[in-house]
TrEMBL record:
InterPro entries: PASTA_dom (IPR005543)
Gene3D superfamilies in alphabetical order: 3.30.10.20
Pfam families: PASTA
Domain of life: Bacteria
Disordered as annotated region, ranges: 167-189
Domain PASTA: 24-92, 94-164
Feature: compositional bias, Acidic residues: 175-189
CDD domains in the cross-refs: PASTA_pknB
The name this protein goes by in its record: Penicillin-binding protein
Length: 189
C-alpha cells in the first residue's frame, strides 16, 4: 500500500515538474514580421521572449524594403512557447548580377527570349548594315558595348544592334594598330 502511494505521489510530482519546465499551457502568438527591418524584428521578438534565425536571402522582391523580412516560419498568428526560434527569410539589397550569354550572330528571335528568361528587359532595337537580317551584332547597356561573360543586374535594359540584311558586311578591325577599315574589308552581295 505504501508503494502505491509512493508511485502516485512520484507520478504527481513528475507531472507538476513537467508542466513547470515545459511551460505547459503558456502560448505566445507569433507576430507578423513581414516588411520589418532586422532591428525592428529583434525588438519585437525580445518583448515576446522569442528568438530568430536568418535562413536565407531570397531573390530580390521590389515590393518589400531592402533587408526586410519577406517570409517567416512559423507564420504570423500561430502559437508557440517562449524562447522559440522564428526562422526568417530576408529581402536582399538588390537584384543579383546575371551573366550575359553569347548571342552574337544569333537571331533576334533567339536573343530576345533568352535575355527575357534571364530577367533582362529588351531596350532599343537599332540596325546596322549587315548581310544577315535581324542577326545580333552587338549588345549594349546604357550606350556601352557589353560582351558575353559580362555581368549586369537582373532587370537591366539591354539594347540590341541587329543586322539590316542590306547585303554588306563589315568585319570588325582585328588589329589594334589599324585605325580605319578599307573598302577591301567590305563585301557586297
Amino acid at each position: 500500500m505504501l508503494a502505491i502511494i509512493f508511485v502516485v505521489v512520484l507520478g504527481y510530482a513528475a507531472m507538476q515538474w513537467l508542466d513547470y519546465t515545459t511551460n505547459q499551457g503558456e502560448r505566445i502568438e507569433v507576430p507578423n514580421l513581414a516588411e520589418l527591418s532586422l532591428s525592428e524584428v529583434e525588438t519585437m521578438l525580445k518583448e515576446k521572449d522569442l528568438r530568430y534565425e536568418i535562413l536565407d536571402s531570397a531573390n530580390f522582391n521590389p515590393d518589400y524594403p531592402r533587408f526586410s523580412v519577406i517570409e517567416q516560419v512559423p507564420k504570423a498568428g500561430k502559437f508557440v512557447k517562449e524562447n522559440r526560434k522564428i526562422y526568417l527569410t530576408l529581402n536582399p539589397s538588390g537584384y543579383r548580377k546575371v551573366l550575359i550569354p553569347d548571342l552574337i550572330r544569333r537571331t533576334r528571335r533567339q536573343a530576345e527570349p533568352t535575355l527575357k528568361s534571364l530577367g533582362f528587359e529588351i531596350g532599343e532595337i537599332t540596325y546596322k548594315p549587315d548581310i544577315a537580317e535581324d542577326a545580333v551584332l552587338e549588345l549594349r547597356h546604357n550606350g556601352e558595348l557589353i560582351e558575353p561573360g559580362d555581368e549586369l543586374m537582373k532587370t537591366s535594359k539591354i539594347d540590341l544592334v541587329l543586322g539590316d540584311g542590306s547585303g554588306s558586311y563589315s568585319r570588325p578591325v582585328e588589329d589594334s594598330v589599324e585605325t580605319e577599315q578599307t573598302n577591301e574589308d567590305q563585301f557586297d552581295f
